[in-house]
């Protein structure tokens, strides 16, 4: 992970060497919506801070810092202002980290600052997530015995055995796919996938292709 971050920093350094092109791009755009986030590969390692414009997708600054204190982040924001060369920052998007909030308030006191949509959704969906997690737990209790079924047909090579193995694989896949809450509810996703498996089994059973127990 650390090696990948180092390579990423090298690529960003090359990209940011095009500062004249970036300035022209932002002047034509007329404003910037700044996104600020940090990535720490492991506890105790440096944090890679990336500041980018949400409108153009351009990365303005990428810097590794040993700390994420308000002073250090404020310095990054001031450096971005220099890069923009007078192009106004109309908004800032970040997570709810207090040092980020304080740094934005210090350097950009009159600029709108909001949490990213993912964090809004995560906070808003907490109660729904807990209910969904409980639903998935209850659903998993009803889906047992996949392995004995696989053992029963493991020495068979006929079409019915192949179909049974395929359905067992589909069930296993559904059980281990947790989705990405809050954008994807794991319990609801499991229910939908298992409903599709049951519907498929019902159809082939009605056609007499295989027996469903």
Please explain how this structure is put together.
This protein is α/β, with parallel strands linked by helices and 213 residues long. The protein has nine helices and five strands, in the order H-H-E-E-E-H-E-H-E-H-H-H-H-H. It has a five-stranded mixed sheet with strand order 3-2-1-4-5. Helix 4 links the parallel strand 4 (89-94) and strand 5 (112-115). Helix 3 packs across helix 4. The longest helix has 21 residues, at 186-206. The protein is elongated.
Query: Biggest sheet, in brief?
Result: 5 strands, mixed
Using only CA atoms, what is the Rg?
26 Å
Distance between the termini: 47 Å
The number of E-state strands comes to: 5
| Percentage of β-strand residues | 15-25%
What global shape is seen? elongated
The residue-averaged pLDDT reads 82
DSSP helix fraction: 55-70%
- DSSP helical segment count: 9
Which secondary-structure class do the elements indicate? Answer: alpha/beta
The unreliable regions are none
H and E order: HHEEEHEHEHHHHH
Strand order of the main beta sheet, please?
3-2-1-4-5
Q: How are the secondary structure elements laid out?
A:
Layout lengths: L1 H15 L2 H11 L2 E8 L7 E7 L5 E7 L4 H15 L4 E6 L3 H10 L4 E4 L1 H8 L1 H17 L3 H8 L5 H18 L9 H21 L7
Helix pairs in contact: 3-4, 6-9, 7-8, 8-9
Task: Supply database-style keywords.
213 residues
Q: In brief, what are we looking at here?
A:
This protein has 9 helices and 5 strands. It is an alpha/beta fold and 213 residues long.
């Amino acid at each position: 992970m650390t090696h990948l971050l180092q390579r990423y920093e090298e690529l960003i350094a090359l990209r940011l060497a095009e500062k004249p092109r970036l300035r022209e791009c932002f002047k034509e755009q007329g404003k910037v919506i700044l996104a600020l986030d940090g990535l720490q590969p492991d506890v105790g390692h440096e944090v890679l801070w990336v500041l980018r414009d949400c409108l153009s997708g351009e990365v303005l600054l990428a810097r590794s810092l040993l700390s994420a204190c308000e002073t250090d982040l404020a310095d990054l924001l001031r450096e971005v202002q220099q890069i923009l060369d007078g192009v106004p920052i109309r908004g800032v998007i970040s997570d709810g980290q207090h040092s980020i909030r304080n740094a934005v308030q210090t350097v950009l006191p009159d600029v709108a600052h909001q949490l990213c949509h993912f964090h809004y959704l995560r906070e808003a969906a907490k109660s729904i997530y807990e209910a969904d997690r409980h639903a998935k737990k209850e659903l998993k209790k009803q889906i047992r015995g996949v392995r004995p079924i696989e053992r029963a047909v493991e020495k068979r090579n006929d079409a019915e055995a192949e179909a049974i193995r395929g359905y067992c694989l589909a069930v296993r896949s559904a059980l281990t796919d947790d989705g990405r809450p809050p954008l994807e509810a794991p319990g609801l996703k499991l229910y939908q996938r298992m409903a599709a498996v049951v519907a498929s089994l019902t159809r082939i059973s009605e056609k007499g292709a295989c027996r469903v127990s």
